[in-house]
Amino acid sequence: MTYFAFCIHNHQPVGNFPHVLEDAYENAYWPFLKLLSKYPSVKLTLHTSGFLLDWIARSHPEYIGLLKEMVSARQVEIMGGAHYEPVLSVIPECDRIGQIKMMADRIEELFGARPRGIWLAERVWEPTLPTTLKNAGVEYLLVDDYHFVRSGIPKEELGGYYITEDMGNTVKIFPGSETMRYMIPFQPVDSLEGYLRSLKTTLTRGKAAIYGDDGEKFGVWPGTHKSVYDEGWLKAFFKKIEESADWLRPVTLAGLIDAEDPLGRVYLPTTSYMEMGEWALPAPSSRAYGALMDDAAQWDNGSRIKQFVQGGIWRNFMAKYPEANWMHKRMLMVSMELGEARALKPGDKTLGEATRALYKAQCNDAYWHGVFGGLYLPHLRTAVYENLLTAERLVAEARGGGGNSIEKTDMDADGNDEVILKTAGLNLFFSPGIGGGLYEFDYMKKALNLSNVLTRWPEGYHHKLEKIATGGAFEAAKSIHDLLLVKEKGLDKLLTLDTRRRGSFVEHVIGRETTFAEFSANTHAELADFPYGRFECLVDDDGKGFSLSKWSDVKGVSVFVAKEIRPLGADGFTVSYRVDNDIVDARDDTPGEVLLAVELNLLLPCCDGPACLYNFKGVTPCEGARIDGTGIGLGSAGELSGVEGVSLIDKFTGVCVTIEVSTPVRLWRFPIYSVSLSEAGFEKIFQGACLVFLMPVNLDAPASTGFSFSVRVEAI
User: Fold this and answer.
1) Residues with catalytic function
2) If I label 104, which of 375, 595, 696, 701 is the partner at 20 to 30 A Cα–Cα?
3) Does domain 2-272 have CATH number 3.20.110.20?
4) DSSP state of 480
5) What are phi and psi of 35, to 5 degrees?
């Protein structure tokens, strides 16, 4: 007799659009559960992440009602987890336990039973997790068989669960089958039956087939609703299990624990599923790793290499993407502030609300990118900051804080201090060590980070898009990880990459001959190292502002840039510039007039949609704009002259950012579009609006130039 343990994980990230949740419910979650209920002998272990579970409970009580009946009938076991689906190993220990217990409480409230096991988000395992799990009351969890293979255990010995421990704290751990993960629901049911029958002779330890994977592959992934429901794959699958009672016994994961002893002890390495290791590597290494795995698939018994080869670990995403690291360190900052407040006011209701907001901000999706992962999706990053800033505001309310402050601290753990200016309505995070730029610009009234812009980073899969554009072909996809769909034509033309993280109030010195096209494509020549260099930081004597300054060589002339940042009321600030040079006598090779280009990068929640517009002040009309310079969307690009100010308006969110300049300037503007790969294929995504203010600077003779920006944010 072979056991069959069938585990499904349903998940939607915090901040996902309601229509996406509704679509997933109608196309996957509800039809799956309804069909399963007609085959009561088929057992299921089901995990639904907390954000999705709460949404279903509010929006579709019929689902909860049917599921409760199936739990009572012992057909379904509800699996727990960390409520808002964080990667457990990278959040503080108190938050790990708090999230797991929050989920267990919610499951007990809805279904009358406390979960015994948990789903581990993205199967990201680190060896010290058993202590956390033991302290949170967790009995078991499921990872991939790849975790076990990396420990040297052959797949033939993965017919059950093992015991692992940390400091004597034990937990039971299941290996989910990679083979079945690629077969279900993509291969014919007869092929799956053949594989299950073969386990009777191929398994040398244990007698269980263990499956665990995403519920979205049963109706949400491209083409699966048709194959799974319209063409009857899932019905045939359930029917086959029901008809195989003489040799196949369906069990829940808890049921398998109750029926069988553990197969032994195991210590798993730090890892996730194999594809995650490829995605976590830097782009060149990711491409090389993928090529190696493709080659190994063609070798005789090439699967042996998997035992000894691993890509990067999940934490690598925080080295690969500075924006992910910044969000993570901001999360740690808020968690620490909240912990300090709870110690002073245990049981405070406001701090309870702050805790839930923090937990929402820990949802893993926005912190990483692969075929899955949501770092490239602005609305998911926006949701992270919305919840972080909400938690921060609630903590301040509970502690009675407020007013202006300046703090210097290494917030992002890069070895360099940031300088943080807070007013009643804004948080400004400048990084003196990274070009003196502004990398977080928070409007607290809307819990909105206006600097939430993603850089155009290289990706290991970009060569595939280039090959498609030149007529190359790839094998037909058999899995979501291999799909090569293109959502619109011409995406290869948008493969423009950046060489540094995008910030605001970053200075470039460029030649007068530099074109708009060169700058927007990042092919221009930098005449100074201001965008990359370290600025000196000095806090003003009155403690209300600070200055950042740096000398740099421009073709033999030393140029000094200083900028002073000071608050402007509760919801604004000024940046006042002084530009000097130390030239004494002009030479034949003196650079003459150059351009100081001050770059800003901003993101509003509605991105380049119709609700987001520019409004220019003092602009010379062109490009089809009306005389007052309005009616131009954030997805537009071009050059305007005589600009005295610009507003970025998000009508849907109700926020307006206004930037005024003390002297009329030439202005370049262009959208930042990334080209990324998701389960839906290659797609273009708006990541922010770039504004470049051009100031002429003469280097023929000693000179000092001054100008200033005023920035205000308002709710509209």
Assistant:
1) 122, 214
2) 375
3) yes
4) G
5) -70, -40
Instruction: Say which residue the tokens 């967790």 belong to.
Output: 138
31: how many CB neighbours lie within 10 A of its CB? 17
What CA–CA distance (Å, rounded) separates 521 from 637?
Answer: 12
Within 10 angstroms of residue 455's Cβ, the number of other Cβ atoms is 19
Other Cβ atoms closer than 10 A to 573: 21
Residue pair 535/547 in contact by the 8 Å Cβ criterion: no
DSSP string, 189-221: HHHHHHHHHHHHHH-SSB-EEEEEEEGGGTTTS
CB of 593 within 8 A of CB of 699?
A: yes
Long-range contacts of 395-403 (CB under 8 A, 24+ apart): 395/334, 395/337, 395/338, 395/341, 395/351, 395/354, 397/350, 398/341, 398/345, 398/348, 398/350, 398/351, 398/354, 399/341, 399/344, 399/345
Quick count: other Cβ atoms within 10 Å of Cβ 67?
24
| pLDDT tens, position by position, 169-209 | 999 999 999 999 999 999 999 999 999 999 999 999 999 99
Multiple choice CATH, 494-715, 2.30.30.40, 2.40.50.140, 2.70.98.10, 3.40.50.150 = 2.70.98.10
pLDDT tens-place string over residues 534-583 = 999 999 988 899 999 999 999 889 999 999 999 999 999 999 999 998 86
Torsion of CA 212, 215, 219, 222, to 10 degrees: -70
Q: In Å, how far are 170, 256, 262, 366, 690 from 148, measured between CA atoms? A: 17, 19, 14, 28, 47
Measure the CA angle with vertex 247, ends 243 and 252; round to 5°: 85
Rounded Cα distance between 535 and 548, Å, is: 6
Of the listed ranges 15-29, 343-357, 388-402, 581-595, the least confidently predicted one is: 581-595
| Residue 624 vs residues 615, 616, 635, 640: alpha-carbon distances, Å | 13, 13, 14, 12
Check residue 304 and give its pLDDT.
78
CB-based contact 79:7 (threshold 8 Å): yes
C-alpha distances in Å from residue 189, one per residue of 45, 192, 206, 355: 20, 5, 24, 46
Bridge-based pairing state of the strands 557-567 and 593-602: unpaired
